[in-house]
Structure prediction request, 368 residues.
Amino acid sequence: MTGVPLKSPTAALVPPAKTPAAFGALAPAILFALLASLGLVLHHASTGASVVSVAWALAVAALLYRISSSRRPAAWRTFYFASLAGFFLLGMHGGGTGEPVPCHIGMAGNLLQPLWAQWLALSNGTWVKYGALSLSVAWLAVLLAAGGGTCGWVCFFGGVDDALSRVPRKPLLRIPPSLKVREFQAALAVFLVAASFGWFEPVFCQWLCPFKETKGVLDETLAVFPVQRAVQFGVIGLFLVVLPLLTGKRAFCSALCPFGALPPLFHRLNPYRVTVRPEACVNCGKCAAACPSFAVEAGPKAHAVNRYCTLCLRCVEACPEGAIRPTLFGRRRSAVFPFVSMALGGALSMFYVPAGVMALVRLATSPW
Prediction:
């Protein structure tokens, strides 16, 4: 805080940048057509799931319109992102029958195994038959397309601590900048990858994943099983719920998630940025306080957004001077990113949202 007076307490609440008129007007319709078509292809055997798919495609298209036109794009993005997480948990863990979705978090913490499997498949001539079993390449494509926005728009887990981190108006606990949370995340990711390859076991999934069921990954017959479950519930309670509510930060996604350590590595390759205009910044610090991912740094004259940005747009809303905006490569103002990210996240959600909605309907209509 520099003590420089703000130019106007309300001057900055400007709408997000508009895409070119033709595309901006058609983007929601294009998104609806793409997602509805995908949903009908995936769920053609079920009338109920097909109807839900089309309805969900319409909802996502409507949310794209609101995000692109509202003065509060981050609030609508949070609603969309939290919906992805909610429907995923219902569809995959709440009695739903969703299609299996490859877990990018588990893959990131277990990265060398799929690469090793791909090498073996390639070396013995069976890559065409077995190579597709590892979808790491698909997640790499999503990462290159969405960059840090993968963790703010596409991930079907991240909506949990993202939504909870918006609850406190003022954080009860402040995390000092000297505590290098994102550097810790990178070091932990390296350790998890090395340990998983050394033991040939998914260490993150066994010990830290708050979404993992007991079957498949955890062996209930082992003596260490109660300890594993205790650690996992501790992670759920502390990093996924308590810390976001106390600090307003995405504690799990910024400190423990191994996938979250990957987008910063590809930051320079991705065209989408959230950029601070130094000439308009008054160094009030509201953007840094609003950022849930430790991605805004204070400078001598202006704040700056670093490579850890998840493109959640909270800093855009928080800035009282309109000094922050979405751009392409930090130069030209652009609002293309919501369409790209919602196309990716919406396409992935078609595998589990219909199951989540139908599970919710069953819960609501079943006798107590």
